[in-house]
Protein: Cytidylate kinase
Amino acid sequence: MNIITIDGPAAAGKGTIALSLSHLINFYYFNTGNIFRYIAKTIIDEGLMYEFLINKNHFNLNKINQNVVFLKEIPDLVEKSILIDEKLLRTQEISDSSSIIAEIPQVREILNKAMRKFIYDMLGSNKVVGCIVDGRDTGSVLFPNAGCKIFITAERSVRTQRRFEQIRSTFTEDFQEEIKKKRVHDSLVLRDSRDGSRKRDPMIIVKDTIVIDTSKISQEETIEQILAIIRIKLPDLSKDYRKTVNFI
Ligand SMILES: Nc1ncnc2c1ncn2[C@@H]1O[C@H](COP(=O)(O)OP(=O)(O)OP(=O)(O)O)[C@@H](O)[C@H]1O
Ligand SMILES: Nc1ccn([C@H]2C[C@H](O)[C@@H](COP(=O)(O)O)O2)c(=O)n1
Structure:
């Protein structure tokens, strides 16, 4: 299956690497974190986050606005999460909330189903050669049959620094609260713990996954390593195609 999964902890560089790689090999790139972020944003916008936090295990997901009723399938849920301005999804509040919401099995079930359908439709339409998906459980749960599974990680201090710089360069003074390094660090600690220890679909490294620690290597080196892995794992990508994208 021409699906490449890239999992790993927050701020490890998955999205950046996946996006660059998708341009190089002409694959479609799908960021699964954004769909969890989109749901978090919706709960926050509906003013329901407080209620959600105190009743986490009994929260009535049907309470959410008719357009976003989780328990019914929302046909354009994935499309909505793609079309929204990504910057609106990258606030600290949404980062923290999305990780909490992602613990709910019902939410995961519905989002996974919607994401799988979207990707399979995309591949089936023959508009794309393949797809790169990134997240926490894309190789272990979402696409266990993916042809190539990568896990990108980095030391937490490195990830804190990367996220800190990323936020500083993205947000203006309206987001001063966002740029305190301790808050970035504390948020990563909490998210690492929640994403790695939740009962349903925790972030794990499954046995056919190749782990790349990017703490001391550049983005370019990481991409080189992944291209070398893809050559072995996805040998069926046609030779002609490989030549056109400098794949060999
Ligand atoms: N060697 C590296 N590899 C990847 N990203 C790096 C590297 N060095 C610095 N970065 C930077 O780290 C920042 C975080 O990367 P990115 O947002 O892609 O992480 P992520 O793993 O997708 O995070 P999240 O899961 O929270 O969305 C980006 O600004 C990226 O440019
Ligand atoms: N496959 C996924 C992707 C994301 N999540 C949750 C957990 C994360 O903390 C949150 C935000 O993701 P990010 O944008 O940081 O990649 O969404 C998940 O549980 N499973």
